[in-house]
Each structure stands twice: as C-alpha cells, then as structure tokens.
Amino acid sequence: MHKRALIVVDIQNDYFPNGKWPLSGAETAADNAARIIAAARDAGELVIHIRHESVGENAAFFLAGSEGAQIHPKVLNRPGETVIVKNHVNSFRETDLKATLDRDGIEDVTVVGSMRHMCIDAVTRAASDFGYRVTVIHDACAMRDLEFNGTLVPAAQAHAAFMAGLAFAYASVLSTNEALAMRGEPRASAEAGDN
C-alpha cells in the first residue's frame, strides 16, 4: 500500500461566521474535514495542517498573530502534528511541504480545506505536478460566491466547475462518505450526508 498523507488547508477562524472572510458552507466543510482527519489519524497517516498568514498591510483576513488566522477548533492540530505556515496561495511555495512529504515517503495525498478555487486548486495541481496521487474531498472544502466582469457565480456553481476541472486531469474527487467507505468506515449519520 502506498504511503498516504492528509493535507488540511487553511481551515481558519476568519473563514467562519463572524470572521473577516466567511465562506459558504464553512461549518459543514469543517465537520466533514474533521471526519477525514479522524480516519487518517486512526490509520496512522501523516496529517499536515496548513495555516495561511497574510503579510501585506492591506490584507483582508488571516493577519499574522490574529485570532482569525488561527486553525479552527473543529480541526485543530494535535500535539506532534505538523503545522506549516504559508504566505502564498500555493501551499508548496516557499514552505517545506514537499520536503515533509518526501521525508516520510508519501506517494498519495488527500486534500481538504479552503478556499476551493484558490488554495485547494493550487495545492492539488502542484501536488499532481510533483507526482503525488491526489484525492480531493469535495464536501470538506468551502468557498464564496465569485464575481467576474459583472457576472456573479454562486459558490455551488463555482465549486462544481473547479471540482470538475480537478477531476478531469489532476485528482480523484470524492465525497466524505465515499472516501470513508473506501477505507471501510461505516457511512456517516444523516446530518453529514453527501452534498
């Protein structure tokens, strides 16, 4: 069996209600991510938490040292789990993420977190380009409505478009329940069903 790691990207307080940049479905995505984290821990897999800190004066959220930049309690890292701080969209850029994966001989990575259209998209494509087999848990990711050139794209539609792009050539894209079933875990309770 290939060695597998879970990468938990930017599930931080500012993305939740009352934060500086709340996302659509943040609570549900975090609940699903917590289930995936629990399964990875039970399997003895490497769990890596990515925490973004914004460095610019005009940053809208994730200001270094702020409560909003802290990992959300639903997915809080355990002592001894790796936490990598990044300052860019791509979790591999100017961090030791790749070195950490390679040191442990990781071949497969699973990705959960936020935002789907930015940091999840970037880390997934980069991981695939580096040669890792990638799985994205689509309902353990959150995002916001998008706007381009006067057109509003609701979060659900943007989510579908980005996941379709990743599924086409970069990753296996599964629901939480599908991923847990593949591990032999029982299907979850009704409140955490597939989206």
Automatic annotation (TrEMBL):
CDD domains the record matches: nicotinamidase_related
Domain of life of the organism encoding this protein: Bacteria
Keyword Phosphoprotein: no
GO molecular function, one term: hydrolase activity
UniProt KW Hydrolase keyword: yes
Keywords (A to Z) from UniProt: Hydrolase
Name of the protein: Isochorismatase-family hydrolase
Native species: Rhizobium favelukesii
